[in-house]
Amino acid sequence: MAVSATAKQEQPRVVLSARGLSKSFGAFMAVKNVDLDVHHARVHALIGPNGAGKTTVFNLLTKFLQPTAGSITLLGTDITKTPPDRIARMGLVRSFQISAVFPHLTVLDNVRVALQRTNGLSTQFWLPVSSLDRLNARADELIESVGLKRERNALAADLSYGRKRVLEIATTLALDPKVLLLDEPMAGMGQEDIGTVSNIIREVAKTRAVLMVEHNLSVVADICHHVTVLQRGEILAEGDYAEVSQDPRVRTAYMGTEEA
User: Fold this and answer.
1) Of the residues 15, 77, 225, 260, which has the maximum number of CB atoms within 10 A of its CB?
2) Domains of the chain
3) What digits encode the pLDDT tens for the residues 54-70?
4) CA dihedral 100, 200, 113, 209 (to 10 degrees)
5) How far is residue 245's CA from residue 242's CA, in Å, rounded to a whole number?
């Protein structure tokens, strides 16, 4: 059956891809021949048991590690040998498992620091502090979008762990990423914060691609459009959550038995 032009237009475009991605550390092959396509306006989960190679894949995609073999393409450009600072400027931005905010700055100032780069202020140290006031409107938009309006003037150090992670997402969004990589965004959170961050990620993915490593499978089932399962550095299964969760190989990898 022929596919209509309208149907073709509705297919989300690939914004980040890897082909044959591999990484060895001496004789140990941490990632082996991974093919990955991340689509615009979709949440893509990378899951697997501990030691599956998920964080190594993240480090390869963001160029914190150089692949032993394979290629990586971002927005149609080969970035296999591109340094990580340039990758970030191209629109591939990641968060980390450990919250990375400035504890002795307010929520507003944390977001304003992140906004300086995209507004050409990050290297202009001779300008007065008042020059940052022009960033307030956009900072307030971001703060409100992640539900931190009441904490706008609070010190980051005084926020709960979950709210610090929310602030980190706001500062990451301030960099205006085209592709957002989130490394275990729900780690250590209570149920209320998990719900808040899930809603934020769902909204964020309306206008950009999100690739996330996540151990909370309820979250994966709730917000992810596509799931790639890794085991021992290789792709074990992929598809939507309903598909991969019923795959006997995935059940064995997580539970140790196909009957789990």
Assistant:
1) 15
2) 12-91+178-190+207-260 (3.40.50.300), 95-176 (3.40.50.300)
3) 999 999 999 999 999 99
4) 90
5) 5
